[in-house]
Write a structure and sequence with these properties.
Layout (H helix, E strand, L loop, with lengths): L3 H23 L5 H4 L3 E9 L7 E4 H15 E6 L3 E5 L2 E12 L5 E13 L2 E9 L2 H7 L4
Parallel strand pairs: 1-7
Antiparallel strand pairs: 1-2, 3-5, 4-5, 5-6, 6-7
Length: 143
């Protein structure tokens, strides 16, 4: 196992690559090929059942569709300072997340965590955990 500081740097580097690819794709700056640089072809992302983009999003096309769907819902998504560690093939991260609803500009700021599994240096599975999915759904309501 890597020493703690080296481990944390590796985790941060992997996260920076992944989130940069996601946000660039969401903004339309790059195509799906850029996602293949960080996501395994057999990737699956498990989104919470209570969110409008619930379910398992499979493969590069699935992840691309998830990112497009999130981009249609959120005018802005950003993560604050991340804390992360890497153990075996699994990365654990947490950070505050800020979401701004496209429909009404309502903002949600809350703790966020994600467990990511890697294969061959690529994300093969992601499970995000939002602190309060009810607050997220309420922010998407009109008015």
């Amino acid at each position: 196992m890597l020493a703690t500081a080296e481990n944390d740097l590796k985790a941060k580097s992997l996260l920076d690559r992944m989130f940069e690819a996601e946000f660039r794709y969401m903004r339309g700056e790059v195509g799906i090929a850029s996602l293949a640089e960080v996501f395994h072809p057999d990737v699956v992302v498990h989104e919470p059942a209570s969110l409008p983009y619930a379910g398992d999003w499979c493969g590069l096309d699935g992840v691309a569709a998830l990112i497009r769907t999130m981009g249609d819902i959120w005018a802005d998504m950003s993560l604050g300072d991340m804390t992360a560690t890497y153990a075996g093939d699994t990365l654990f991260m947490t950070a505050p997340i800020t979401l701004v609803a496209r429909a009404n500009d309502k903002m949600v700021i809350q703790p966020f965590a994600e467990v990511l599994r890697f294969e061959d240096g690529l994300v093969i599975e992601g499970t995000p955990f939002y602190s309060d999915t009810h607050a997220i759904v309420m922010a998407l309501q009109s008015g």
